[in-house]
Amino acid sequence: MGAPVRRERPLHDVVLRLLLIVGAVLLLALAVALVAIQRSLVLLRVGAGDEAMDAAHAWNLTLLVVVIVLVLLVVVMGLFMWRALQRGVTRPLARLADSVRAASTGEHEHEIRVEGTGEVAALAADVEHMRRELVQQVAEVRASHAETERTHARLAEQARELARSNQELERSNRDLEQFAYVASHDLQEPLRKVASFTQLLQKRYGEQLDERADQYIAFAVDGARRMQRLIQDLLSFSRVGRSGSEPEDVDLERALEQVRHDQEGRIVEAGAEITHDPLPVVRGEKALLTMLLTNVVGNAVKFRDPDRPPRVHLSARRVSGAEPGWELSCTDNGIGIDPQYAERVFVIFQRLHPKDVYSGTGIGLALVKRVVEHHGGRVWLEPAPGGGTSVRWTLPDRDEASDGIVG
Q1: Closest Cα partner for 297 from 275, 279, 323?
Q2: What share of the chain has pLDDT > 90, as a percent?
Q3: 294: containing domain
Q4: How many domains does the chain have?
Q5: Which terminus, N or C, of the chain has the lesser number of Cβ atoms within 10 Å?
Q6: What are phi and psi of 141, to 5 degrees?
Q7: Is there a contact between 383 and 339 (Cβ–Cβ < 8 Å)?
Q8: Structural domain contains residue 172
C-alpha cells in the first residue's frame, strides 16, 4: 500500500490560528501596558520622591519593552504570514495561471499540478478536472470532425456519381427520343407499305391464288398490323411524363365519358355495361389519365367471361394517413387473374394468354402503372367479389399532386 496522502490544512484555518495567537499576545501586552500605566500614575500621586520616580521609570521601561515586543511580534507575524501566503497562495496561483495559459494556447495535454493548501489546491484540482473534460471533448469534436470530413467526401463522391448518372440518363433520354422519332416515322412506313402492297397483291391476283396463299397473305397483313400496334404502344409507353404538359384539374367523370365514347363500338359489340360512382377532380395530365382509364376499361371489356355479359364498375374513395388522396378502382366480372401473377401483369410485354385468344401487345397494364407512378401514386390488383378482377390505384390530393408528378 502507498504512503498516506498528507492533507494540507485549509488556508483560512492557518490564518485564523495565527490571528488568534496574535490577538492573545496583543491582549496580554495591552494588559501589561495598562498595569504599567496604572502603577506609574499611582506612584506619581503618592509622591514625587526619588523612589517613586525610579519606580515610575521602571514601569515606563516595562511599557517600552512591551511596545517593542509588540512591534517585533507584529513584524515577525507579518513576515510569517507573507511567507505563508507566498507558499500557499501566490506561488501556486501563479503556477496555476501559467498552466492555464499554456492549456489555453493549445497545450491541452499539459497536466496542471495540484499545489497549495485548502481552497487553492481545490481550485487547482477543479481546473485540472476541467482540463481533462476539455481534452476529452476536444478529442470527441476532432473525431466528429474527421467523421464529418469522411461523410462529406462520401457525399461528394456520390454527388459526382449522381452527376455522371444524370449525364448517362440525359444521353439515354436523347437516344430514346431519337428512337421515338425513328419508330414513329421510319419503322411504321415500311410496315404500312408491307400491309398495303400485300393487300393489293391479294386483290389483283386473288383469283389466281389458292386458299393457302390467301392464308399466307392474311398472316403477313396481320403481322404488319400487330407490329404497328406494338410500335404505337411502345411510343405511348416511352412518352409518359415526357410531353412537357403542365398539370391541370382533370374531371375523371368527363374523362370516362370520353373513353366510353371512343370505345363505344367495342362496348356495344361485347354487350358491356359501364357504371361508375361519383368520380373526383384530380390534378394531373389529362391525356395520360384518359389513357389510364382507356386501358383499365378496355382490359375489363377484353378479358370478359364468355358465359356472362361484362359488367365494369368504377369507384373512388377518400383516403387519409401518410399519403392522403384518392383510391380509385375498376372492377369487372371477367375471367380474373391468378393472385400469383398480380405483379407480373404490370411488367411490359408480359402476357398471360396466347395472342390468338386475346389480342394485344402486353403493354396495357405496364402503361397504367407508369402513368400512376408518374402522378405519385401506386397500383395493384385484387380479386373481385363473385369473380373477376379489381384494378386499384391511388392519386394524391390536388394540392399535392403537382409536387408528386415525376419525370
Answers
A1: 275
A2: 12
A3: 245-404
A4: 2
A5: N
A6: -65, -40
A7: yes
A8: no
- Number of Cβ within 10 Å of residue 172's Cβ equals 10
Q: What CATH code is carried by the domain that includes residue 306?
A: 3.30.565.10
pLDDT in tens, 11-48: 556 666 766 777 777 777 667 666 766 666 666 665 55
Tell me the chain's radius of gyration from C-alpha atoms.
53
Look at the block and give the residue holding cell 395493384.
Answer: 380
* Phi, psi (rounded to 5 degrees) for 252: -65, -25
Q: Which three cell numbers stand for residue 285?
A: 395530365
Between CA 254 and CA 251 the distance in angstroms is 6
- Beta strand residue intervals within 20-93, DSSP E: none
Beta pairing partners, 334 = none
| Beta carbons of 329 and 315 less than 8 angstroms apart | yes
- Write down the pLDDT at residue 4: 43
DSSP for 347-368, written as a single string: STT--SS-TTTS-S-S-HHHHH
Mean pLDDT computed over every residue of the chain: 76
User: Mean per-residue pLDDT for 104-115?
Assistant: 68
Phi, psi of 207, deg, nearest 5: -70, -20
Local structure of 57: helix, strand or coil: helix
Question: What does the pLDDT read at residue 392?
Answer: 92
CA distances from 108 to 93, 104, 134, 344 (A): 19, 7, 8, 65
Tell me if 356 sits within 8 A of 375, measured CB to CB.
no
Q: How many of the other CB atoms lie within 10 Å of CB of 117?
A: 20
Out of 63, 90, 117, pick the residue that ends a domain.
Answer: 117
The structure's pTM equals 0.52
